[in-house]
Design a protein that fits this description.
The complex is a heterodimer of chains A (108) and B (113). With 108 residues, chain A is an all-beta fold. Chain A is built from no helices and eleven strands. In chain A, the strands form two sheets. In chain A, strands 2, 4, 5, 9, 10 and 11 form a six-stranded mixed sheet that branches. Chain A has a five-stranded antiparallel sheet with strand order 1-3-8-7-6, with no helix packed on it. The termini of chain A are far apart. The chains are: A mainly beta (108), B mainly beta (113). Chains A and B meet through strand 5 and strand 10 of A and strand 5, strand 9 and strand 10 of B.
Chain lengths: 108, 113
């Protein structure tokens, strides 16, 4: 079974700061997805990364994929309070394996 | 209506009750999934219906029983649950062999008392 690890599990950061969330996975996959979940809500798709070296950006979030290292990063630039949520990476083709999630709190 | 719709949003049931969760997708997808999300645990895949064939996770207790009458509807039948089954149950759908990933429903918050 494919294993997906995220770190950190919890992240508290001040507004305006930058930080990176890491997602490592155990076996070869050329697809990686990032989702956001607000408390009590469902998962919202953020990024779809489909090839080695893929980089996607939306607002203050940028995701990248290194399939050789089996690593994806989600970089947060100049964090704002609205980014507070839990972020999940997921790996796989037709069946996904999710990471444990990173709970992000942005402090004013 | 579009997307993935789950009902009910909240459910409280006793350990001797029988209830069902419903999921409906309006996206034309051909695969549907049940996930369990418990506090401080990874999302747990419970069942997959892929082209209307069931693929299940063998660690799921038999008190959970899925049903997929067609490609747009998915049910999770619950009976004699335990308090540790309290969780958020998420339904998702996808189009197999396409790159778009999953679309999730809003979930059913289940509390077993």
């Amino acid at each position: 079974e494919l294993k997906v690890e995220q770190n950190p599990l919890f992240l508290s950061m001040q507004e305006g700061k930058n930080y990176t969330i890491y997602c490592n996975y155990s076996t070869t996959s050329d697809r990686l997805y990032w989702y956001r979940q607000d408390p009590g809500k469902s998962l919202e798709s953020l990024f779809v990364l489909l090839s080695n070296g893929a980089v996607k950006q939306e607002g203050r979030l940028m995701a990248s994929l290194d399939t050789k290292a089996r690593l994806s990063t989600l970089h947060i630039t100049a964090a704002v309070h609205d980014l507070s949520a839990t972020y999940f990476c997921a790996v796989g083709g037709n069946q996904f394996y999710f990471g444990t999630g990173t709970s992000l709190t942005v402090i004013p | 209506e579009t997307g993935v719709t789950q009902t009910p949003r909240h459910l409280v049931m006793g350990m001797t009750n029988k209830k069902s969760l419903k999921c409906e997708q309006h996206l034309g997808h051909n695969a549907m999934y049940w996930y369990k999300q418990s506090a401080k645990k990874p999302l747990e895949l419970m069942f997959v219906y892929s082209l209307e064939e069931r693929v299940e996770n063998n660690s799921v207790p038999s008190r959970f029983s899925p049903e997929c009458p067609n490609s747009s509807h998915l049910f999770l039948h619950l009976h004699t649950l335990q308090p540790e089954d309290s969780a958020l149950y998420l339904c998702a759908s996808s189009q197999l062999y396409r790159e778009g990933g999953y679309t999730f429903g809003s979930g059913t918050r289940l509390t077993v008392v």
